[in-house]
Predict the structure.
Amino acid sequence: MSTIYLKSSDDQPFSMEEAAVKLSLKLKRIIEVKDRVNYFIRIDNVKGIILTKVIDYCHNHIISKDDTEVLKLFDQEFVRNVDEVSMMYLMDAAKNLEIESLYELCYPALIDKLKAKKLHEIEEMFYKEDLDQVAGICLETVLSSLDLRK
């Protein structure tokens, strides 16, 4: 299997096995249309720290694809070890890269992490961060799912 080279929006280089890359429908279309094996594919709007987590998720979902119990445990640990702001960026990356399973993992996990918090706590958590416009839109979607108390 081929290695695909990626570059994050903050110019960090990454390599990923082709099978893992194909979990992203967007990247799958790119590598099927062009022979991108020897070139970097730029991943706009995804910083290196988040792309590292996306790659980890995809890699583990490929190597353990036939073992549902291992995947379940990996997913539980994966979301447990990600803070709320990073989870927002992961959701945004999953949406941008069209990795539905990652988005479907992160969204309810973020809701669970936030549901016990009050609105002002959530605002402090997210608005002290310099969230870009796209992540801000994801935040609005999440906020609309919560029963917020002042």
In short: Residues 88 and 136 are 9 Å apart (CA to CA). The longest strand covers residues 3-8. Residues 3-145 form a domain with the Potassium Channel Kv1.1; Chain A fold (CATH 3.30.710.10). The beta strands are 3-8, 13-17, 40-43.
